[in-house]
Amino acid sequence: MATNRVTPRSRNLAHILLGASILVGGGTLAAPAALAETAGHSPLSAPSTEVVKTANVAKTPLELQAERLPKVTASQVLDIAARQIGISENAQGGGTKFQSWYMSSPRARETLARDGGNVADYANAPWCAMFVSWVGDQAGIRPTMGWDAYTVAYAQWFKDNGHWGDVAKPGAVVFYDWQGGKDISGIDHVGFVKKDNGDGTISTIEGNTGNGKVEARVRPKSQVVGYGYPVYSG
Hints:
alpha+beta, six-stranded antiparallel sheet, three-stranded mixed sheet, CHAP_dom
């Protein structure tokens, strides 16, 4: 298996850096940013310094965003992700609905402005982050799930918004470094946590893994860089 990753500032998003990995083929590519639909501003840009206190409990910007969104649980998001298990890319590494959706979204233009390349480059690009983004969009919680194709920037967005940590909660977005590093800059792959197995592993649902499919996996926590926490109800 090979780890593939498309780097920011590359003028060709199809440029792939290969690294050996016996566990997977996950991909990284592009970071959540603007969402024009939500109150006319961008919840995925740099986090606001505004903190609102209700009943002496401070709310993060993402928690404030969640108040204007449907009430969605982690179980509902995992159910959407699980229904995609078995979907596979084509021989060129593309052809999934996740890539097609991302290419048609306004976010693709934003990440191209950041990273360079052309929209068509996403057609066969690593799609693990696009899968996570698509699930959040289908659940109606894109402003608190984020959307991107580059996993390093995706993870950094969670951290910048104060929704980053080291606890494997169900529904959390899990970011991996196959070499076991703990720096966001080394992230190779992303998926959803289904559960912490209590034995040093986690059960997950991931896109662009194995032979380019959506699959349920069991991963060692030693390869986890950290977890991003969308805002769920209940």
